[in-house]
């Protein structure tokens, strides 16, 4: 079996759906994988393009977005190393429905879908794991839709801060506040005003552009739970 290229090997190792493959099976996938470098804010693919490929983030960050008829960008999710995109095209050949753009210098491994499907037929557990990931993303998307439709702006801000804190009181934003605003469906200016309001109330403290300290978690949780 041909030796696995280090870049492709790193990508495959990071993806949970490939965790249980043997060296030879990983080699099969490595042989149908190419590697590409992208600069900050470079487009990987656009909605409407035909693509039967699985894209794996090796390093960097990628935002997945959709654009409304009015031209407003809505961030669906942010991908980090080990995350993948384009998986739906593996099961249903159809134009891509979202856009993928880097948030920083990023390297991506691109796996040819048709050839991957042949490997999946021999290892159906890969398909099961991909479907499990799709199910998780669908649940996340439904929660996002509920948040945008049922919660006011202050609730959305409180909820995203609690989510990003992961149980800690220090938040180091991995994306810009502009992208964070897009994710929760508000303008950059609206997000800034709400954060300033929370700071004036003594609930949070902002430290520069990327750091937020939660001073009163219970008050933030109360805001998140308020009914509109």
Automatic annotation (TrEMBL):
Residues 131-170 form a coiled coil. InterPro entries: cNMP-bd_dom, cNMP-bd_dom_sf, Env_Response_Regulators, HTH_CRP, RmlC-like_jellyroll, Tscrpt_reg_HTH_AsnC-type_CS, WH-like_DNA-bd_sf, WH_DNA-bd_sf. It comes from the Bacteria. Signal peptide: none annotated. The keyword DNA-binding applies. Pfam families: cNMP_binding (PF00027), HTH_Crp_2 (PF13545). One of its GO terms (cellular component) is cytosol. Keywords: Coiled coil, DNA-binding, Transcription, Transcription regulation. Residues 151-218 form the HTH crp-type domain. Transmembrane segments: none annotated. GO terms for molecular function: DNA binding; DNA-binding transcription factor activity. Residues 17-137 form the Cyclic nucleotide-binding domain. This is Crp/Fnr family transcriptional regulator. It comes from Senegalia massiliensis.
């Amino acid at each position: 079996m041909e030796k696995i290229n280090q870049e492709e090997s790193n990508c495959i190792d990071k993806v949970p759906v490939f965790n249980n493959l043997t060296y030879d099976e990983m080699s099969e996938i490595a042989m149908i994988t190419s590697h590409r470098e992208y600069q900050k804010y470079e487009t990987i693919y656009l909605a409407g393009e035909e693509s039967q490929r699985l894209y794996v983030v090796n390093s960097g960050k990628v935002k997945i977005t959709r654009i409304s008829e009015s031209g407003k960008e809505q961030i669906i999710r942010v991908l980090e190393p080990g995350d993948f995109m384009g998986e739906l095209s593996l099961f249903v050949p159809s134009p891509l429905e979202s856009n993928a753009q880097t948030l920083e210098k990023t390297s991506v491994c691109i796996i040819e879908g048709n050839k991957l499907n042949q490997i999946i037929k021999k290892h159906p557990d890969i398909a099961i794991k991909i479907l499990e990931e799709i199910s998780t993303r669908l649940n996340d998307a439904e929660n996002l839709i509920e948040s945008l439709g049922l919660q006011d702006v202050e609730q959305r801000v409180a909820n995203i801060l609690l989510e990003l804190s992961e149980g800690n009181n220090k938040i180091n934003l991995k994306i810009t506040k502009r992208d964070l605003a897009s994710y929760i469906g508000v303008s950059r200016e609206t997000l800034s005003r709400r954060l300033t309001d929370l700071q004036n109330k003594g609930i949070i403290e902002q430290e520069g552009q990327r750091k937020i300290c939660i001073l009163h978690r219970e008050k933030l949780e109360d805001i998140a739970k308020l009914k509109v």
